[in-house]
Amino acid sequence: MITDVKEAMEGMIETYDREAAKAWEGTVQVNINGEQSGTWWIAVKNGEVELQEGKIENPDVTIRMSDQDFLSLANGRIKGSDIFLDERMEVEGDFEILFKFEKTFPPTSEEPTNR
Hints:
Mean pLDDT: 91
Largest sheet: 5 strands, mixed
Number of helices: 5
Radius of gyration: 13 Å
Shape: globular
Distance between the termini: 21 Å
CATH topology: Nonspecific Lipid-transfer Protein, Chain A
Number of strands: 5
Structural class: alpha+beta
Low-confidence stretches: 111-115
Oligomer: single chain
CATH superfamily: SCP2 sterol-binding domain
């Protein structure tokens, strides 16, 4: 079980679904609040993924949630749609990209799919 937000973010690069990533491109800003707060952005293009700490200008979608919800999501204990419907995740921007993002990045505690 992953207990560190930064480790979970970095793990997303190891577990992403390369085939799903080929179906779309875009940028996602992820803002985590709480004890392990931080900001990261993820760019997907041509099946490749880039993760950077910090902010990116004009992301296609911005996601905000607590560190605890993010870790629950990363460990596969909850779905992003559940956090959103419970109003514990704020989303701004292109919801279509958000849905593709969720398919591309399974929980980081699962076995890598892109190897």
